[in-house]
Amino acid sequence: MKQIAFKNDIFDSLQKQIFSLQGFTAPTQGKHVNFGLGPVEECFPNRVFPTGAVHELVSSSPTDAAATTGFMAGVLGKLMQGGGLSLWISQKRTLFPPALKFFGIDPDRVIFIDVKSEKDLLWMTEEALKCQALSAVIAEIKDLDLTASRRLQLAVEHSRVTGLLHRINPRTLGNTACSARWKITPVASFLEQDMPGMGFFRWDVQLLKVRNGQSGQWQIQWTSGTFDQVEKQAQSVLDKDLLKTG
């Protein structure tokens, strides 16, 4: 029995080390970023959003791409709360930098790099992820194979920089070494009764794949500078309003 317990202790220790290298570090170890994603984080090992890891976000239309950009900006704002710099690498950037202020990001703290070829973009992303001085690297890259994703994952395991790869209309969706694969789509905002204007940004968040975790789907909105799960009661009212107007 003692030998079995000893082997179990070794297994648990090795598993924690592997999780740590993959960005799944327990909140008690080091600095923990509170993303406010609630039930989403329950799907990850140690119930914590993995930082120092590579995330893959997939969009299939311009509308989805815009929603994904907003969600990434919310995540980036949380990663940059303690200061630091981030890189945003793309070929055809459509983001309006001053809009990042809505997500608590000073645009002057984000370095935007526009490249001509996808090959250069991938190389620059890998080199950027090796830089420990950065808080995060966002790359708008279309295609990513298993070999290239492994190189990116190895880079962040040493630097502990968080990578967000936005794949817009990828040709294929094969296996990658990324810690998680997301799909973000827009959802109609909910207006308070007798209140004019627009509601809060709202997304349908799908966690398609999680290494050593569970997939899931939620509705999340950006409220007062943080992520917030959509209340079921508010969603029910919205659904009824849509049926009336439909």
Description:
- By secondary structure, the protein is α/β, with parallel strands linked by helices.
- It has a single domain, classed as P-loop containing nucleotide triphosphate hydrolases (Rossmann fold).
- The protein is built from five helices and nine strands; from the N terminus they run H-E-H-E-E-H-E-H-E-E-E-E-E-H.
- The protein has helices spanning 2-21, 62-79, 118-129, 146-159, 232-245, and strands spanning 54-59, 85-90, 110-114, 134-140, 162-168, 180-186, 202-210, 216-223, 226-229.
- A nine-stranded mixed beta sheet has the order 3-2-4-5-1-6-7-8-9, sandwiched between helices.
- Helix 3 packs parallel to helix 4 (146-159).
- The longest helix has 20 residues, at 2-21.
- Residues 232-246 have low confidence and may be disordered.
Q: In terms of per-residue confidence, which ranges show pLDDT below 50 for 5 or more consecutive residues?
A: 232-246
CATH architecture: 3-Layer(aba) Sandwich
Mean pLDDT, to the nearest integer, reads 82
Structural class: alpha/beta
Q: Walk across the major sheet and give the strand order.
A: 3-2-4-5-1-6-7-8-9
How much helical structure, as a percent, in the residues? 25-40%
How many distinct beta strands? 9
